[in-house]
Inverse folding.
């Protein structure tokens, strides 16, 4: 009986596993006031791109500026007192040397100089604190990214502290995370194929596509969580992708493909060549005497109409491509080897 066969040949391929996940921002900040007062300016448009250190809001700075001026005056006064204390100390030192003034007077003047010096340092610190508080009146962007809408507008009174209101938020859009769950078997296989001394972030590629499937983004594994969830048997994984065009947004649903660390020698055969015998999978192999041999196989994932074969076949085996219902073990056949084109058509 004529049968169509193909020759088993392993080849180096990168294996991929498919997952689904959600996108999240690499950097996300909520903008809240650190100074109390009236909002006098909102210096951005909703949804625009802002650069780091751009001024976003201005809170009435006049009370804080007045405090700064007061602290500057205090510093000048403290410096004047210190200069006078130095002069007094120098003058009394000369008089003590001539035994015209008691030592007790000199000790008092030295103490006054030390106190005056401490007052100068305190005045400097108070001025520095006042200038810092004044800078809080000008709320700046801590990161670059896309800013949300403003939650409070000009004229609203805000206060700092633990209950400070949310003014807006910024999401950095140059890179984006994809968070997904990886089954334990895939995680162990990933670790097994990670070469010592090389970073997992570099080794394992990840491909991302959105619901429309129009674009494919290429990234890499950023991190794995530190434990397996016993209820689901999965571990949280995170990949990172460049987002220079800004098309990827936090919260989007994504299709993800996690690639093996390296290309592996793998045997792939058409799914049509695989038969089912209760809970076992098998193929028919044609031996050198052109007789069929029943061969049990252990198969893996499906890849574009083919199946990975983990065991049961080796290079050079001639496997019957289809029509297994007509084949019996130890049957004499006339094998016809399929060409690469015919084999590709058969897989489809």
């Amino acid at each position: 009986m004529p049968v169509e066969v193909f020759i088993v040949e392993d080849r180096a391929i990168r294996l991929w596993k498919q997952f689904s996940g959600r996108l999240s921002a690499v950097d996300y900040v909520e903008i809240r006031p650190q100074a109390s007062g009236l909002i006098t300016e909102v210096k951005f448009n909703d949804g625009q791109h802002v650069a780091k250190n751009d001024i976003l809001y201005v809170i009435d700075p006049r009370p804080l500026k007045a405090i700064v001026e007061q602290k500057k005056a205090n510093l000048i006064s403290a410096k004047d007192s210190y200069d006078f204390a130095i002069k007094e100390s120098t003058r009394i030192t000369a008089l003590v040397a001539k035994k015209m003034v008691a030592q007790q007077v000199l000790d008092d003047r030295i103490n006054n100089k030390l106190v005056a010096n401490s007052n100068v340092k305190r005045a400097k610190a108070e001025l520095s604190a006042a200038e810092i508080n004044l800078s809080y009146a000008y709320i700046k962007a801590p990161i670059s990214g896309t800013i949300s809408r403003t939650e409070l507008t000009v004229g609203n009174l805000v206060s700092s502290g633990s209950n400070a209101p949310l003014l807006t938020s910024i999401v950095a859009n140059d890179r984006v995370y994809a968070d997904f769950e990886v089954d334990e078997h895939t995680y162990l296989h990933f670790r097994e194929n990670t070469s010592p001394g090389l970073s997992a972030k570099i080794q394992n590629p990840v491909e991302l596509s959105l619901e429309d499937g129009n674009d494919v983004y290429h990234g890499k594994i950023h991190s794995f969580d530190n434990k397996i969830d016993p209820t689901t048997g999965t571990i949280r994984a995170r990949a990172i992708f460049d987002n220079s065009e800004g098309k990827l947004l936090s919260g989007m649903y994504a299709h993800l493909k996690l690639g093996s660390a390296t290309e592996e020698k793998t045997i792939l055969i058409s799914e049509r060549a695989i038969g089912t015998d209760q809970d076992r999978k098998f193929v028919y192999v044609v031996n050198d005497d052109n007789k069929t041999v029943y061969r049990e196989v252990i198969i893996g994932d499906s890849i574009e109409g083919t199946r990975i074969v983990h065991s049961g076949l080796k290079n050079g085996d001639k496997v019957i491509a289809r029509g297994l219902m007509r084949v019996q073990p130890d049957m004499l056949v006339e094998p016809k080897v399929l060409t690469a084109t015919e084999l590709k058509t058969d897989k489809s």
Observations:
- DSSP finds five helices and 23 strands in the chain.
